[in-house]
Amino acid sequence: MLLAILFIFSFLFSSSNALVGDFCVADLKGLQSPAGYSCKTAVTVDDFVFSGLAAAGNTSNLIKAAVTPAFVAQFPGVNGLGLSMARLDLAVDGVVPMHTHPAGSEILLVVQGSICAGFISSANVVYFKSLKRGDIMVFPQGLLHFQFNAGKSPAVAFVSFSSPSPGLQILDFALFANDLPSDIIVKTTFLDKAQVKKLKAVLGGTA
Amino acid sequence: MLLAILFIFSFLFSSSNALVGDFCVADLKGLQSPAGYSCKTAVTVDDFVFSGLAAAGNTSNLIKAAVTPAFVAQFPGVNGLGLSMARLDLAVDGVVPMHTHPAGSEILLVVQGSICAGFISSANVVYFKSLKRGDIMVFPQGLLHFQFNAGKSPAVAFVSFSSPSPGLQILDFALFANDLPSDIIVKTTFLDKAQVKKLKAVLGGTA
Amino acid sequence: MLLAILFIFSFLFSSSNALVGDFCVADLKGLQSPAGYSCKTAVTVDDFVFSGLAAAGNTSNLIKAAVTPAFVAQFPGVNGLGLSMARLDLAVDGVVPMHTHPAGSEILLVVQGSICAGFISSANVVYFKSLKRGDIMVFPQGLLHFQFNAGKSPAVAFVSFSSPSPGLQILDFALFANDLPSDIIVKTTFLDKAQVKKLKAVLGGTA
Amino acid sequence: MLLAILFIFSFLFSSSNALVGDFCVADLKGLQSPAGYSCKTAVTVDDFVFSGLAAAGNTSNLIKAAVTPAFVAQFPGVNGLGLSMARLDLAVDGVVPMHTHPAGSEILLVVQGSICAGFISSANVVYFKSLKRGDIMVFPQGLLHFQFNAGKSPAVAFVSFSSPSPGLQILDFALFANDLPSDIIVKTTFLDKAQVKKLKAVLGGTA
Amino acid sequence: MLLAILFIFSFLFSSSNALVGDFCVADLKGLQSPAGYSCKTAVTVDDFVFSGLAAAGNTSNLIKAAVTPAFVAQFPGVNGLGLSMARLDLAVDGVVPMHTHPAGSEILLVVQGSICAGFISSANVVYFKSLKRGDIMVFPQGLLHFQFNAGKSPAVAFVSFSSPSPGLQILDFALFANDLPSDIIVKTTFLDKAQVKKLKAVLGGTA
Amino acid sequence: MLLAILFIFSFLFSSSNALVGDFCVADLKGLQSPAGYSCKTAVTVDDFVFSGLAAAGNTSNLIKAAVTPAFVAQFPGVNGLGLSMARLDLAVDGVVPMHTHPAGSEILLVVQGSICAGFISSANVVYFKSLKRGDIMVFPQGLLHFQFNAGKSPAVAFVSFSSPSPGLQILDFALFANDLPSDIIVKTTFLDKAQVKKLKAVLGGTA
Asked: Which residues form the signal peptide (chains A, B, C, D, E, F) (predicted)?
């Protein structure tokens, strides 16, 4: 019987499920290295499935928007696999403020409503467009980009990234929600000090 | 005035928009290299937007399913950016047959209906689950996987890949839709010759 | 004396032998990450030599063939170095069934006898040829391929991979040697249920 | 004589100097691909040497600073080699405004004077310090960072990048030196419209 | 009939065989980029097969050895696939002199005779051993290494590389077979000038 | 108030500062993997700043030169970021002997004096030139290269690498400062045995 084949090949399969080269589900309590998290040893199908994007994020806030990530820190199954996702909910007038992903390119897919999205190249050229349901738009790695609701009803989008951990640097938070001294902000952005102080006040920044 | 700054930095921006490191929209009629297509020189926002996934694919076929890709060959804006997408339409009883993507990992996002999806690891372990709307599932690079409609109404999913050109090798097409001699198929798959001949007949294979 | 040079440069060499960037012999009992195993600290020449491919594998089985891997799990010295090997023994009528390596390209080198080898592209084109002693053939990453003895005497080949852990997914094992339900196999492969049941029986599959 | 060795090995060296894997000096008028420029065929030592960083940049401008790049577009020898450089001249009170390099990490080396440098992480934590002559500081890829003269005399620094084409996105130029509509800027940055208009005026932006 | 499936998927396969992501057989007369050669458009199985390693190299020379490469320049099928091979023939007393591969790690497989092989780490530690038929040894990227016949009969080995174009820098040729001035060699190697002149004479070097 | 935004995004920032994808400061006492060191958990600005290159190295030795590295082992902040640096001090007649960096390309920047620098390609072509203050020169990965003081006063250079751990293999140390048997050196380098013995004596080699 062919059963004998099993013995020939089976030693190939004697190591753990977390075979390097097949997959490496993140052990979120394990070590991190430049390549990602160390691998979890016992794995089930639930490690590869994530339901956290099913529900709308809470848009009852000033930007009338919510970003729900499924990066490796939320969805350990993508560790080392070179991709991840997130969900965007935009109420009417909702906006995802100017931001970058330092470590990944992005594709946005509009699944509900209409969204105006754009990015700015290193050459300072602006590329923006109003997208309808079913449209996709790609944002090259590391460039400033934004999205806002371009319609009169709530909008929903799902975004994909070329990294399990693309990062997210929101311009206003980076500048105004920490203790970077106002004088340094003024000096390096040419913004008026009053403007800086005003935004620090609302975003919780100090100094 | 600050205008003078422009002169200092402007020589940085004198090269074409298709700056290496920012983006490289594919010139689909240009040369291909192992890194992708050569870069298009004149670029507009429309190079970064793709509407081809907006409409449902035609599922009036035997598998009752359609796959609509937005790989680099359809969506030149993703060239070199490490990601791409596709749309899956599954009528009732629709199925995306067993297949692999030789060059990319995948995340499937269910946006309508219910889909049963699974993959098989190198250790021959099967991971499959019925997914509801909003669920996502990751399929590690190069492994056999499948999706089929698990509900009683049409289902739609969008899939993201970790490569602009992940490839798609559908098992039945690879085995039965070309001129690979039946004797070789029998010898290398242990399928009965009658089974091979039957599937070659329906899929258009010869030899 | 030039001996003094030693003092100048020696602080460069004060870290362990397992210098990142030179080599990283796998500690097989250590942690795995997406980049491979953690590095062993004490290293000798024997970590870089492997004799497990010297002896023929046992081909007294139904496929009349044996695959002996020297992947990182068997040969820790290749960890992080981007390559590995394996040995193929094919008795008369021996066959290495249809399979893929999800994470690596392969070159096959025939060192004894004659081997017919082939692969199938994403475009469903078949590339196969009978190879003689000394011939080499390359199989691009992730594509289905096969090898069988094309002569009247035993054949031996050595295969090289572009990864320390290329993986190995044998089609028949993936489909028929686990608990993937027969109905799902039928649905996603178009094989007849009787065919599926027959192969599950010989390969030890259930469900 | 050993001369005979030459005949044995010489066929290895019959291809052009621009051997793939050794180096690939950019043909700046050639094609670009995601991996860089196509290779120049005739190469001399001058392709590997660049003198454009020897002279101080002109700091007679409002930021009292100059950035002189030696990216692949200026220094074709670095094409495909994974690194590049630039020179920073900072007059008294000079500042390199808040910016990112979308495609590369940076190390700054102070060779004259004193420079205050900092970056902001995705977690909105600010890391900044006054650096003296001989100090180096690393700025991780894609994160907002800045430098300004922290002393009472001119300062000079050289910066190294982990890419031949790291890109440079200066925040003020990205926001205010193009035709991105003021309303969109206001909406996506929370800046006051008057502030936006003021900076557009000085930086040459429209809309 | 299932034939209808063909229509659904066929548009995926309408581009050329040289699909980015599947394979990219080198057009050796085409352009080179940092990622390799541009892709050939018409491809047959013979592009993936190479017979040039079948015959022994000519060892009637002073080193009593021959190296026959199957790098991308000889075997275009490996372009972009991350691996290549070469054949080593060592007559009795044959030697492959001290050398490096700047762009790839290597595995040596002894198929006939006995070979003493070794490498030297960045920490100046020597790892060497006499290998028998069937043994394999790995040489980490870029490190000095050597092989010589350790037995009393001819030896043959096949070597695999982790790059289609690993490069080959033979120490004696690099130092003594070109016009690098003897004074510079003496200054940078501490060799006696007489020694330098002697080796320049036999290897054809000038200056 | 906009303060509410904080609640929406804040869960993104709840993990440690050593976020995969942003940076991964090396824990030098932690594990190493092929991708570098594991990440330190508590990080301050001082992890990103290194002052060890500020002081001149001691050139009171026979080569009249000193190399001071800021590789990951000295400067943990560069772990995983793809670059590092070093300082070269060359007294009058000082020389950095023939060497390679197995894992990185290099750019040399002359900041004081005049330096003659060169490298040798795989094709045995020599590229060398006398560089003045402010000149930069690139050395492709893995190739033999050298630098020596070309003037009549001390020279200083800073070198950048395309890897946090480029390695450093100095030819004379690799050959003559360890226990590699003299007979093997003679056999694999064609140097006279007396020459080998002489250099072993000064460099501390045995055997």
From this structure: 1-18
Q: Which CATH class for the D46-164 domain?
A: mainly beta
Torsions phi, psi for D7 (to 5 deg) = -70, -35
Nearest CA to A105 out of F8, D122, D81, B48 is that of B48
CA distance, residue C207 to nearest chain E CA (Å): 26
Q: What is the 3-state secondary structure (H, E, C) of C44-87?
A: CHHHHEECCCCCCCCCCCCCCEEEEEECCCCCHHHCCCCCEEEE
Position B4 scores a pLDDT of 46
The architecture CATH gives domain F46-166: Sandwich (2.60)
First to last CA, chain C: 77
End-to-end CA distance of chain D: 77
Whether residue B109 and residue A53 make contact (CB cut-off 8 A), yes or no, is: yes
Residue type at D33?
S
What's the CATH fold of domain C53-165?
Jelly Rolls (2.60.120)
Question: Does D188 contact A128 at a Cβ distance shorter than 8 Å?
Answer: no
Q: What is the mean pLDDT of chain C?
A: 92
Q: Which of A102, A144, A191 sits opposite D141 (nearest CB)?
A: A102
Which tens digits make up the pLDDT trace of B11-51? Answer: 344 334 445 568 999 999 999 999 999 999 999 999 999 99
D99 annotated ligand binder: yes
Rounded distance, CA F85 to CA F165, Å?
10
Q: Give the homologous superfamily in CATH for domain B46-167.
A: Jelly Rolls (2.60.120.10)
Q: Give the whole-number percent of chain C exceeding pLDDT 70.
A: 90
Q: What is the pLDDT along chain A (207 residues), one digit of tens a residue?
A: 444 444 445 434 433 444 456 899 999 999 999 999 999 999 999 999 999 999 999 999 989 999 999 999 999 999 999 999 999 999 999 999 999 999 999 999 999 999 999 999 999 999 999 999 999 999 999 999 999 999 999 999 999 999 999 999 999 999 999 999 999 999 999 999 999 999 999 999 998
User: C143: which chain B residues are within 8 Å (Cβ-Cβ)?
Assistant: 102, 169
Do the chains contact at A95 and D141, CB–CB below 8 Å?
no
pLDDT category at D21 given cuts 50, 70, 90 is low
With contacts defined as CB-CB under 8 Å, which chain F residues touch C22? 102-103, 167
pTM value > 0.90: yes
Contact list, A84 vs chain F (CB under 8 Å): none
Q: What is the value of ipTM here, to two decimals?
A: 0.92
The answer, for E53 touching chain D at a CB cutoff of 8 Å, is: no
Q: Do chains C and D touch (3 or more CB pairs under 8 A)?
A: no
Domain ranges across chain E: 63-68+78-164, 173-203
- The minimal CB distance from E33 to the residues D19, D22, D39 is found for D39
Annotation: binding site of F for Mn(2+): 99, 101, 106, 145
Could you say which residues from 153 to 192 on chain A have a Cβ atom under 8 Å away from some Cβ of chain D? 167-169, 171-175, 177-180, 184, 187-192
Q: Binding site annotation covers A142?
A: no
Q: If pLDDT is split at 50, 70 and 90, which confidence band does E192 have?
A: very high
pLDDT interval class at C207 (50, 70, 90): confident
Among the four given CATH numbers 3.90.470.20, 2.60.120.10, 3.90.1170.50, 3.30.70.100, the one describing domain E63-68+78-164: 2.60.120.10
Q: Do the chains contact at E127 and C45, CB–CB below 8 Å?
A: yes
CB spacing of D22 vs E170 below 8 angstroms:
no
Binary contact (C191, B189; C-beta < 8 A) = no
Q: Across residues F64-92, what is the average pLDDT?
A: 97
Per CATH, the architecture of A51-167 is what?
Sandwich (2.60)
Rounded to whole angstroms, the Cα distance separating F146 from F67 reads 12
Q: Do F51 and D83 touch (CB under 8 A)?
A: no
Beta bridge partners of A146: A118
Residue B170: Cβ within 10 Å count: 22
What whole-number distance in Å separates Cα of residue C100 and Cα of residue B102? 9
- Alpha carbon distances (Å) from A178 to A173, A200, D122, D172, D203: 7, 8, 12, 20, 27
